[in-house]
Each structure stands twice: as structure tokens, then as C-alpha cells.
Amino acid sequence: MKKFQNKLLGSILAGIVLVFAACEDSNEIVDQIVSGTERGAVLRTLNVLSNEIAIQSDGSIAPGQSFGVELEYQDHEDGDLLAEVEVYVGYRDNTAGGTDNDKAQVLATTIPASSFSTGERGLPVVSYSISGDEMLSALGLPSSEVEGGDQFEIRFEAVLTDGRRYSFADNSGTITGSYFSSPFLYTATVVCAPSKPTAGVWSLAMQDSYGDGWNGAAVLVTIDGETTAYSLDSIGEAVAGVATFVVDADDEVISVQYQSGDWDSEVTFQLTSANGNTVVDAGPSPSAGVELLDYCPDNL
Question: At 94, is the secondary structure helix, strand, or coil?
């Protein structure tokens, strides 16, 4: 019995030695792998403040138009490796026909580490914005070449104290996902600022394919902040009808949105300006809660 116990104890001790040896070998392998891994840095998107640049009817950038974003910097030293962030801008000409005005990215400015403050997670954060005019100046692009639907590119490049750099080209799905949200590259779309509507009588033709009215749906017409809802029900019709309204000479801005009802698939409508242009032709199932007027043609 004693011999059996001694053999059993010996086997257990031998097993323990093997386990420790295996763990030690495993740790050495892990250490070898980790030692060859480079730890980088990310700029996490906290909030996109503005990503549209409105242009006026003469093609110039509307006052106060800019791209803005709040960023949080992260590295394995809790942000201590940040030297600066370089900001590059480019331009995508998405307008069909004419001259191709694409512009390659150029350095627009540099954000030093000293411009970052400490955020709620103890990491460096910064709120950055660049105006449309500043981007045009950096690119050497005249405002006359800017069209609605074109896009500015804004790319950030983190420069570390040891000279390493991280930007869009270093991205992977891990850091562009929902938590890190670190694309390094953003776009600001050129949109047209609201143009002054033609004074006179505007007409809104409305139809319902089933013939039972709009079931709670409506077209919301806002003129200088005053909103009026129009629908087949509001004019006492079920199949089709026309509502009219007057735009005064001193009115500056008109906006048109669709309010969803129970049967949007039955709804269609067309809005005609006082100048005779059809400026909205929507449905079936019109887009709800968005601006339906396209200000870029300047045909209101």
C-alpha cells in the first residue's frame, strides 16, 4: 500500500512539473508573439458636429459653413505618446460632365497635442472645425467650381512622439466599428442653401390610389418658419384634389416635408412653383421627415 502511495505521489509531482513546464513554454511563445506586435493609436469619433457645406446661388460658400468633429485620442500610454494631429483636405467632384475638379489631399493644418484637453475617460479630446472657405483656400479651388453633391474629404493623421504615424491606411474593421469609430477619414457634402421662392400662387396636386383619403398623411409646407399641413382630407377630397397657397414677395425660405400616414403606398403628390416649375414629384411612399425640395437647381 505504501509503495502504491509513493508511486501515486510521484506521478502527481511529475504531472505538476510537466504542467508548469508546459505553462512556462506557452508563456515564452506568447511573449515572443507579443514582443513582435506594434501597438498603435486611434482617433475615436465622439461626435460629428457638422458634415454639410451649404453654397449660395452664386456658388460661394454660405456664411458659417464648416466641417466639425469631436475626437478622442488613444494609445497604450493613455495618450502620452501624442505629438500632433495633421489635418488633410481633398475634394471629390461628383458633378457629371464638365471639368473634373477632383483635388488630391493636401495638408491644411496641424493640431498640437497641447490643443487637446482631458476628457471624461482621462484621455485627450479635441473639438475641431474647418470652414468651407478654409478648405477651398488650402486646395486652391475657386468657389465657382463647387457644385451641390460634391464632397470635401477631411483626413486626420496622428503623429506620435517617436515619429510613428497612424491614419486611414492603417485602419481595420476593429477600429472602424461601433465602439472605436475611428475612420480617420470623413466627408462633408456640398449642399445648396435654400433659394428665395418665386412670389405668387403655388399649387399642390394630391392623389390617393385607393380613393379613401390620406389616412393621416400630410404635406408640411413651411414659409419663413410658419408651417401649414395640406392633405386630401384637409380639402375634403378622397381620390384627388389641388390645394393652393400664396408666397409673398418678401418671403425668403420655403421648405417642404412629408408627414407619414397609415397608407403611404397610396400617396402621390406634385408641387408646382408660381413660376410653373414642378419642384416636387413624390410617391408612392414618399420619404418622410426630410427636405423634399432640391435647392441646387435654383428653380423655385
Answer: coil
